[in-house]
Amino acid sequence: xxxxxxxxxxxxxxxxxxxxxxxxxxxxxxxxxxxxxxxxxxxxxxxxxxxxxxxxxxxxxxxxxxxxxxxxxxxxxxxxxxxxxxxxxxxxxxxxxxxxxxxxxxxxxxxxxxxxxxxxxxxxxxxxxxxxxxxxxxxxxxxxxxxxxxxxxxxxxxxxxxxxxxxxxxxxxxxxxxxxxxxxxxxxxxxxxxxxxxxxxxxxxxxxxxxxxxxxxxxxxxxxxxxxxxxxxxxxxxxxxxxxxxxxxxxxxxxxxxxxxxxxxxxxxxxxxxxxxxxxxxxxxxxxxxxxxxxxxxxxxxxxxxxxxxxxxxxxxxxxxxxxxxxxxxxxxxxxxxxxxxxxxxxxxxxxxxxxxxxxxxxxxxxxxxxxxxxxxxxxxxxxxxxxxxxxxxxxxxxxxxxxxxxxxxxxxxxxxxxxxxxxxxxxxxxxxxxxxxxxxxxxxxxxxxxxxxxx
Length: 456
Fold this sequence. Notes:
Blueprint: E1 5-9, E2 35-41, E3 52-58, H1 61-75, H2 83-98, H3 106-114, H4 125-134, H5 141-155, H6 165-172, E4 196-197, H7 200-209, E5 217-218, H8 221-230, H9 237-246, H10 250-255, E6 261-262, E7 267-270, E8 273-277, E9 280-284, E10 293-296, H11 299-319, H12 340-353, H13 361-374, H14 379-386, H15 391-415, H16 450-455
Parallel strand pairs: 4-5
Antiparallel strand pairs: 1-2, 2-3, 6-7, 7-10, 8-9
Helix pairs in contact: 4-5, 4-6, 9-13, 13-14, 13-15, 14-15
């Protein structure tokens, strides 16, 4: 295809005839007179209709020629035997001329062309995030809301400095460049706070300063028993007990239904949970596929659930027609569902009233896992009870707590033997202790080296 042309037009008219001078304008010798235009023929459209890249407004011939050279360079990106590529570049140039936009950058266009990306895409990262979120069909409501909040609050206002999973998906789908600058930025590792056990020293320090050693704290069996004794006559006692003994999540305990309970098998199925969307409560599936599980119940928990069922039936009778039949095991007095947020607030108040070192409601679940692991329960059974997909998750989460418990156990073993090591008192010459303790015969240094002895 032939290269384009550069031409000039002016608005000067012949004063005698009133007609434009055109090429005969007396001022034509000046290169700065008039307006310069660029015209370049493009590849015909798919319907074979002809088209041109046409642009004006240049004040000098040099400016117009520079623009034309850019157009020619862009058209040379595809090979001559690549009609699809030539058509794509011509579409790009036609759209650019129609929108009166600057020519696209050559290097960026070449990169997009070689990676098979859309050449005239104007999609921003913010727009891609919206499209990415709309395609996350399998996300739970709370997860979707969290991603939406991250994008709206943290990503879009600072999009030049922040990268998320959506960028990786866009790169994989070749909507964005395969070069990811965020891979070359060093960030501090995002580590979760370690779970720590409430030892006597930590309790004493907390009582002095009021500061928790870690956001995630775990009770030993003793304070757990104190808590359960304190709430023994609370109408939600069995909810606290199930979390403390079986390690259910808050939403799972609030959402469990009577149809999930089997008196014959003495078991409780975890098949649903109540989650918060803002302050609104929604029902959803457990956190992961491993969260759907069957929990065996000890006799005390089984008997307690039977008593709880009688209590709920009495509340039903007392409320009459105003009773809300939600089918939940744990409800408000009128049968309505428990709000997970209010349950957490109630737990905090109970812990404070009991005078116990503070933990979160979720830490009661951690305590159940810790007690099971310290009791030498098979980690696989512990992971299945908690709804973890892998025993490694269980070990990683609770390893620091187990270390604390093992140290505490070592101290208790040492305390069983009432022994105090006394300092060794030396005799006046400072060579031997006063007590005649049998000693191993000291080794004597040979007078000759092995090589010397062999020579001798």
